[in-house]
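Researcher: Here's a chain I'd like modeled. Treat it as a single chain, no partners, no ligands.
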Amino acid sequence: MCRLMNQKQQRLYKGMVDCFVKTVRTEGPLALYKGFLPAYARLGPWQLVFFVTYEQIGILFNNGKSLL
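Model: Modeled as a single isolated chain. C-alpha cells:
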C-alpha cells in the first residue's frame, strides 16, 4: 500500500494486485515484509497498553468481572 501512495507523477502500478505481482517478481516474496519490524515496534507497545487499560476499565465498571 505504501508503494502505491508514494507514487509521484509516474505511475508504476495500476492497482494493489499489480503492485503485489510486480514486487514479488522483481524483489522476491520477502519484499512484502519490508517495514514490518518498525511498524510492529511502533504498534506493539500501544496494543499492550490498550488491552491492559481496556481490561482494567472493564473490571472497574463491570463489578469486578472481566469483559473478555
